[in-house]
Write a structure and sequence with these properties.
alpha+beta; Hsp33 domain; 5-stranded antiparallel β-sheet; 10 helices
């Protein structure tokens, strides 16, 4: 089954929710970055959140960057999403792992760290992007993003993210949701919603049982008469290209390019998001040097 995200709202227009399955995306990222299990869980939560947040964007040219900068051994994690929810991502140190927590779950907070920041950059194609930043709360990512929405965007939200990794280190299930409470919700509805969230089974467990986003919507929030408004297929995909790498080489300046030509006679650049390599021979570098001089 392909990964996808749905957008839904309740009949009273008090709750909106985005629910996704991201198993294929997270598995592809795991293979590219060769992450260990706990790092896979952390990266998978980041990818899932960034994808959903991308779908929340208003215009096709909009881009969102989600950064988690903690003091844990995994280092900085970055995910970039577009309007369609497609994502590319990287982690500072992919080969980190920790023993499970006492409840048997991955110690994502341990690899991320509790000291640091959540940074959200929304590029609307204007001169300056919107940048929101809040301190980490737990390092578990879902709680940190819920806090981001309340503090930075004044939007009460609930965030659930899950990644289930098998003994063979392959991702068995991944997905999540971001739920936002709209103005004028009545207290009895709020209490009912809180009860649903407190008693729900983990998202990764539901997906592992074969549930689709629509089925999870009905299973968890069936009492709210939810209507699905949109469905988008999502992928882990990188938009790197030789043209972009050429621009990166031009940006280092003519003196550096000359030094590369004289010393090595070639250059090899690697995209940190997908590990694709781009080779520039001496002829390529000479042409790039000419562009840098102009």
């Amino acid at each position: 089954m392909k990964d996808y995200v749905i957008r839904a709202i309740d009949k009273n227009k008090n709750i909106r929710i985005f629910i996704s399955t991201t198993t294929n995306m997270v598995n592809k990222a795991r293979q590219i970055h060769n992450t260990y299990p706990t790092a896979t869980a952390a990266m998978g939560r980041l990818i899932t959140a960034a994808s959903i947040m991308g779908v929340m964007l208003k215009s096709k040219q909009d881009r969102l960057t989600l950064q988690i900068r903690g003091d844990g051994p995994i280092g900085t994690m970055v995910a970039v999403s577009d309007y369609n929810g497609n994502v590319k991502a990287l982690v500072g140190t992919p080969n980190v792992d920790l023993p499970p927590r006492e409840d048997g779950k991955f110690d994502v907070g341990g690899v991320v760290g509790k000291n640091g920041n959540v940074i959200v950059i929304k590029d609307y194609g204007l001169k300056k992007p919107y940048v929101g930043q809040v301190p980490l709360v737990t390092g578990e990512i879902a709680e940190d993003l819920a806090n981001y929405y309340v503090v930075s965007e004044q939007q009460p939200s609930a965030v659930a993210l899950g990644v289930l990794v098998g003994k063979d280190e392959i991702v068995k299930s991944a997905g999540g949701f971001i739920l936002q409470i709209l103005p004028n919700i009545e207290e009895n509805e709020l209490n009912k919603l809180e009860n649903c969230l407190n008693n729900m089974e983990s998202v990764s467990s539901l997906i592992n049982k074969g549930m689709t986003p629509e089925e999870m919507l009905d299973y968890i929030f069936g009492d709210f008469s939810m209507e699905v408004l949109e469905r988008k297929e999502i992928e882990f995909v990188c938009d790197c290209s030789k043209e972009k790498m050429t621009k990166a080489l031009i940006s280092i300046g003519k003196d550096e390019i000359k030094d590369i030509i004289e010393t090595d006679g070639m250059a090899e650049l690697t995209c940190h998001f997908c590990n694709k390599k781009y080779v520039f021979d001496k002829s390529d570098l000479q042409k790039i040097l000419e562009k840098a001089i102009k």
